[in-house]
Amino acid sequence: AFEVLVIGGGPAGAAAAVYAARKGIRTGVAAERFGGQVLDTMAIENFISVQHTEGPKLATALEQHVKQYDVDVMNLQKAVGLVAPKTPGGLIEVKLENGASLKSRTVILSTGARWRNVNVPGEAEYKNKGVAYCPHCDGPLFKGKRVAVIGGGNSGVEAAIDLAGIVAHVTLIEYDSQLRADAVLQRKLASLPNVTIVTSAMTTEIHGDGAKVSGLSYKDRNHDTAHRVDLEGVFVQIGLVPNTEWLKDSNVALSNRGEIEVDYRGETSMPGVFAAGDATTTPYKQIIIAMGEGAKASLSAFDYLIRLPAE
Ligand code: FAD
């Protein structure tokens, strides 16, 4: 059995594994895809002290750093269930899709999240070539250019306000007849001179010239008319879904959005189970934040372990 078992091999999981291994305790990492969302990222320019890197490069560095230590890395392993110990302080069980199960004194959940796609022609083709999901990450790449934000909930309206300060013009596209963001955000958005808000609009296609995005088409749902906007970037903001479906039947408390509820130490509602990164209620989903939270969850797990009664 492990003393610390990390589920997920993104920035949060990698940081948790390194911190645990450095305590000299039996550490394992099971990940469906080691590297996580970082593998799908191109330019990364906000990982402080590294001016510029690329996703696959950072993912390789994460794996190499973990493998410097005596960590049992189990890649391509998907967790499907978490079972609480039979007695307090006992072994926690993680069930894998392949039928096997792993046991550990503590578990760190860091299964991340995924952006919801609009699923229109051009979205997949121009991902990282004008189609973006993270305004904090990619906003500055569109300085002085024209962009659209798809989605009029809080994250879409926040993104539009943020981007309006950087880019030349923002078109906010909302499917519904009205925005769903908080009133205070809507008022702020309406006050900005370089923002156009389009409601009752269904995005139908993202256009490009083969190398990068050149426009977006939408259907006006009230008049059934087709429209095209020329622009250089599209930010899709229709939701970030935590990878926590596999925890629904466990005793780990999830928020109404499916995020793992954690306290300031990274503890979940189940003793011995900690969590970090995009899968949790911690706000602002960023690499540097996920790594910090992973380190914190690992140190909390260590604190928990040294308080367990000797066997
Ligand atoms: P993830 O990176 O999502 O990793 C989750 C891990 O858990 C993966 O290994 C996954 O395979 C595994 N997993 C999931 N479910 C299971 C399961 N059931 N069993 C086992 N393993 C499982 N952030 C920045 O700071 N700067 C940027 O420039 C930036 N650009 C981005 C660009 C794109 C296109 C995207 C998608 C994200 C970007 N982000 C950026 C956000 C950043 O990637 C995330 O905040 C960060 O990766 C979160 O780390 P994490 O470890 O919590 O989760």
TrEMBL record:
Species, as recorded: Caulobacter hibisci
Keyword Transport (UniProt): no
Protein name, UniProt field: Thioredoxin reductase
Family named by the database record: Belongs to the class-II pyridine nucleotide-disulfide oxidoreductase family.
Residues annotated as domain FAD/NAD(P)-binding: 3-294
Protein keywords: Disulfide bond, FAD, Flavoprotein, NAD, Oxidoreductase, Redox-active center
Cofactor(s) this protein requires: FAD
MF-aspect GO terms: oxidoreductase activity
Top-level taxonomic group: Bacteria
Assembly: Homodimer.
